[in-house]
Amino acid sequence: MRSAEGARSSRADQADQRRAELLDAARRVVLERGLASTRVSDIAKATNVSGGLIHYHFATKDDLITAMLRATSESEVRRLREIIAGPGTAIQRLDRVLRFYIPSSRSDQSWILWLDAWALGVREPHVREILLELEGGWIEILSEVISQGMEAGEFTCDDPQGAAERLDGMLDGLVVRYTLHSGAMSRKRLLEHARIAAAREVGVDRSSFPA
Amino acid sequence: MRSAEGARSSRADQADQRRAELLDAARRVVLERGLASTRVSDIAKATNVSGGLIHYHFATKDDLITAMLRATSESEVRRLREIIAGPGTAIQRLDRVLRFYIPSSRSDQSWILWLDAWALGVREPHVREILLELEGGWIEILSEVISQGMEAGEFTCDDPQGAAERLDGMLDGLVVRYTLHSGAMSRKRLLEHARIAAAREVGVDRSSFPA
DNA sequence: GATTTGACTGGGTCGCCAGTCAGGATCGTT
DNA sequence: AACGATCCTGACTGGCGACCCAGTCAAATC
């Protein structure tokens, strides 16, 4: 069942690559145009591919969108895990997580995707499930860093899970505000709020955070 | 330009009433079906009215939706103002605000509207403006109650505005979680989080809140 | 080198839905 | 009563967009 094990470009590989390419284009197009006004043909155009090909690889538009959201969510959680496995004190890692949460600049509109997904998730159980896993991932990571800090004697916290839920919620809410009305909430102020709240939750002084 | 000042049912009144009725139906339909799959004809059906009539009172569907969101937002802010103008100690009023924030039961899905509106607001400046006013209203009210409490000597807080922003953000984020996955976050737990965070922000003990 | 399999094209179809329009009913005014 | 303004109806349309399909082409297999 194939020429040699060195074969890098079998038919299956080609299909996988094409699917990944389509997911990528889908993400870009949805970010740019919004879920509501994204057409299958837009994604086809962005990939320089015929409209028919989309439906060859994905049965329906919903399938494509759902797969794209799943892929994005999984890659986000993967990067998060790398962060908390990284070097530094617990507070440094916590700070890195907070900064990863927050859009890195005015032009980073990646959160738009999740605003669309939240609205979609209300009606679509598959999407809702993806969102549940993503949020669960965030909370778990936060709670894990806090526990690490407690073991290291850096932090004090009698309910890491609860603290993680509160922090995660606050960041979600503030990022919505920042994404929608960046004029009313600067990135600096957002990060400051995050550090103040996090410092309180883990029982350290706000000045313990890096400048 | 009219019979007597006692006239309660002039043509203008009738039109106003019909418009209000349509806005109300629009809200119900959007909550039930979601913005994305709400048709103008659905709203017409829900009002027992012809499709054409909608476009007699509202030029476009967008106009109708925007007006509905504006009306809903304004009524929400109005009710909020009543709460903080009400009786009781500052902490009682603060608690009332928190409880007004949180959906009153599993079946209260009113927040779905704002999830849809957030996604819409990314592309529609008019909607974004409404959202800005609504959030601004919440933050202002929170900050006002906190200030009242400080004047009364109940609270300590060196940045009421910042505290209000953090609380508002946290509640937004947690309510999203509650609305989307009520299984992962009970109303009780949500309220508990709100009280813990609020107590910290205003420098009182969590036990100061009503049971 | 013949045949099969899989990737891909592009035109077509079919249903849906916002918005239009011509006309009808009802109200207020004179 | 007559008339104009306003409210309302329901059939219609024009465009759009997801999905289908018949056919092409190239790579894999025999």
Q: Which protein chains make the most extensive interface, counting residues with beta carbons within 8 Å of the other chain's beta carbons? A: A-B, 39 and 39 residues
Treating each run of at least 4 consecutive H or I residues as one helix, how many helices of chain A? Answer: 9
Mean pLDDT of chain A: 94
User: Would you count the extended β strands of chain A for me?
Assistant: 0
Compute the CA-based radius of gyration of chain A. 20 Å
How would you classify the helix and strand content of chain A by structural class? mainly alpha
Write down the oligomeric state: homodimer
Principal-axes geometry of chain A comes out as elongated
Note the run of SSEs of chain A as H and E. Answer: HHHHHHHHH
Q: Between the first and last Cα atoms of chain A, what is the distance in angstroms?
A: 58 Å
Helix content of chain A: over 70%
**What does the largest sheet of chain A look like?**
none
Low-confidence stretches of chain A: 1-7
Tell me the strand percentage band of chain A: under 5%
Describe this structure in words.
In chain A, 70% of the residues lie in helices and 0% in strands. In chain A, 36% of the residues are buried. The first copy, chain A, has helices spanning 11-33, 40-47, 51-57, 61-85, 90-101, 112-121, 125-151, 160-180, 187-201. With 211 residues, chain A is an all-alpha fold. Chain A binds chain B through residues 34-37, 112, 115-116, 118-123, 128, 131-132, 135-136, 162, 165-166, 168-174, 176-177, 179-181, 184-185, 193, 196-197, 200, and chain B through 34-37, 112, 115-116, 118-123, 128, 131-132, 135-136, 162, 165-166, 168-174, 176-177, 179-181, 184-185, 193, 196-197, 200. The structure holds a DNA duplex (30 and 30 nucleotides).
